[in-house]
Write a structure and sequence with these properties.
alpha+beta, Arc Repressor Mutant, subunit A, 6-stranded antiparallel β-sheet, 312 residues, disordered N terminus, 10 helices
Length: 312
């Protein structure tokens, strides 16, 4: 059952909404969905003029298998992160795969949806616009080292009514600096806009093992192989073969993370052998599938609170 609590800001009516296990609010005709972040602080709104009342709020939840958070947006920036499991975050014309070694910076008013096939420990941060102005203006996948990981987890322990004292101000400054200076990660795939290419991408998204060549596609799409490849290059920044390889990598990561046999994954991704799949993986990621996930459990534990941040 949906319940409503009406609030009024200086400029518009805001409806705070409880949607099952998620929360949200409506400003004018826009609905914003928020997972498990505090909406009210001591009887007052956590939002003012489409802004957060604190420099940063944490969104913490355990996502079940096949979890789907439908397309939504926020009037502030979000650092999407999962300390366990892998999320897929889709924005306009691009999909990002976010394992625990990565996070995704999502600028304000960026429509996005989040899915996870096998579940994830969701530990994301919503960042006040005064602080977010130092961060990228476009959706950016970044590498998460041990320091950034523990900063994120530390914030999840602050609660909704934390005091913004000098210690937390310093930690927030370090957090923003770490996000800003983090190296970017290649775990994303641009999606084509051309309707002819969308027919191909839709089929491959449903069946990554599909090995149909551009020559065969051209017979049904109505464009020459050369034209199709040129369009892939223009719209996705990579040729068709490379784009399909990247798609297969993204679909394989969740299964690799779960410890499934590489040879079975390789066959399901359209490869004749595990060695062929590993060669392709190394070409794109710079290491083997097993090496890629080795760092997942090697982060140092750094105590930022009186109670040490957990790794869950």
């Amino acid at each position: 059952m949906t319940s409503y609590l009406g609030l009024r800001t200086n400029s518009c009516q805001v409806a705070i909404i409880s949607l099952h296990s998620h929360a949200g609010f409506r400003i004018k005709d826009k609905l914003f969905i928020i997972s498990d972040i505090p909406l009210l602080t001591k009887g007052k709104s956590a939002f003012s003029k489409e802004e957060l009342a604190k420099p940063v709020f944490a969104s913490v939840s355990e996502m079940a298998e096949n979890h789907f958070l439908k397309k939504h947006q926020h009037p502030w920036g979000q650092l999407a992160y999962a300390s366990r499991g892998i999320m897929k975050v889709s924005v306009a014309n691009a999909s990002f795969i976010i394992p625990p070694e990565r996070a995704l910076w999502i600028p304000r008013y960026t429509p996005h949806e989040i899915t996870t096939r096998y579940g994830a420990s969701y530990r994301s941060l919503y960042i006040n616009n005064d602080w977010a102005r130092f961060l990228p203006n476009s959706t950016t996948s970044i590498n998460v080292d041990g320091l950034l990981r523990e900063l994120i987890l530390a914030v999840t322990h602050w609660g909704e009514n934390y005091a913004v004292d000098s210690t937390k101000q310093r930690l927030i400054s370090v957090l923003i600096d770490q996000i800003q200076s983090a190296s970017t990660a290649p775990l994303f795939l641009n999606m084509p806009k051309d309707k002819r290419l969308q027919k191909i991408s839709s089929i491959l998204n449903n069946d990554p093992a599909n090995s149909t060549t551009l020559e065969k596609w051209s017979e049904t799409i109505g464009a020459t192989p050369r034209t199709l490849n040129r369009l892939f290059q223009k719209e996705t920044k990579m040729g068709f073969v490379e784009w399909r390889q990247r798609l297969r990598i993204l679909y394989s990561l969740e299964r690799i993370d779960r410890g499934e046999a590489i040879n079975l994954i390789a066959l399901d991704m359209g490869y004749d052998s595990a060695s062929a799949f590993i060669t392709m993986f190394k070409k794109h990621m710079g290491c083997s599938p097993k090496q890629y996930f080795k760092t997942a459990n090697k982060h140092p534990v750094i105590n930022f609170n009186s109670t040490q941040a957990s790794a869950t």
